[in-house]
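Let us work through a complete example step by step.
Step 1: write down the sequence.
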Amino acid sequence: MNSNQIQEFSIGELVEATGGTIVQGREDSIIHGISTDTRQLAAGNLYIPLKGEHFDGHDFLEEALAKSAGGVLLDAGHAAVSASLSKKAGNCQIILVDDTLKALGNLARFWRRQVGRTVIAITGSSGKTTTKEMTAAILTQNHSVLKTEGNLNNLIGLPLTLLKLNKGHELAIVELGTNSRGEIKRLTEIAEPDIALVTNIGPAHLEGLKTLECVREEKGDLYRTMSKSGLAVFNADDEDITPLRRSWQDRVLTYGVKSPADVTASDIAKWGISGQSFVLNAGSESAVVQLSASGMHNIYNALAAAALSRAAGIGINEISQGLRNFHPVAARFEVHTLPNGAFLVDDTYNANPASVREALKTVQALKGAHRSVVVLGDMLELGDQTELFHEAVGTDAAVTDVGLLFLKGLLSRGIAAGAVKGGLSETKIHFFERSEEIVESILSFVQAGDWILVKGSRRMKMEEVVKNILGQTMA
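Step 2: predict the structure and record it as tokens.
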């Protein structure tokens, strides 16, 4: 069975998986593939109409029929259209469910059980994607692996990822993301992971989660909801993880640098722009790891990946080689060397106080005696403490010896205030409304050896600064 095989379900299996009711069709009829978007729907697919803030997939039911959908789900709120739809459906199977989003998740869980492969689940306030990619770099050397692509880590993306799983895969590595209470629990119910990790706990998505304690409870639902026969991986150095570790009484694997752990790093050596190295220790075994990613946060990401791989039965030398093969993920502390010898760090994928702090510390270590220019956009979804978190980041910028601080966004005054409190001169702080202005200013003075860090929340579109700098210097 190859990795592109289309899922096949009987209508009876769909009813079993979703708890739905057949409006039209036969239990032995077969559905070939799943689609939630009529623009991508192929003949024979099951169309699952989902509802969002600005759309309702049920509005496209007739389009699905016109494209010869093999079946459609209807949620209870649209039961009234089932009779009229049946008259137009022809051979299309129609199943009524309580909620189509829940049905999508239940169907993915059913499929995950049918295929029966090892599933590794990763959540945390930061480092999820890099840890996933490092783990994949290790496991794909000798195994067929399915992994989360892009940002498909929510209640739609996770099921769609798991529905790609087939017997040609040996393992799946999935990310679980959240911005409101209860999502991790539901995602864990869908994924049913065999191995689970919370990378860290930090101030992220506080608009929905409100407090750090609520973040810990939300992330901790991964461990609480997974099967007790599973294996939980813990960051031994993160004090905010400790309460979760204490409450887990079953199989466990730990990693860390400062605390005693099952998987540790020693003899850490920095290589500047080329990355860093360390000795990976696991039990009585050790191996040198060469990592083409800078920063202490990436040491932790690598240790997390090593622990997950160890939990999956991978040997230490294979882990070492896999980490050597890893390349930094786009827009996550991705370093570009400009033609004039300056360095541009694209860390624009997202931002929260902890990830900004780590980025600032890493640039400070990399720049040495050279100058740094830090371009920061607003950090969003931080709730009632938004101003305090922005001030704290400003102080972090000051104490990490930032040369110039370029700010964009309505919340950036808080960053400036914190930077001044931290000792940065007001003459080194500049405000901008447009990305083009930032780029024009930077390119007017940047020189060999300078380091430029660009970071901000996704909605701030700070990647435009990076694209414009690269476009004007690399052409």
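Step 3: interpret the result. The radius of gyration is 24 Å.
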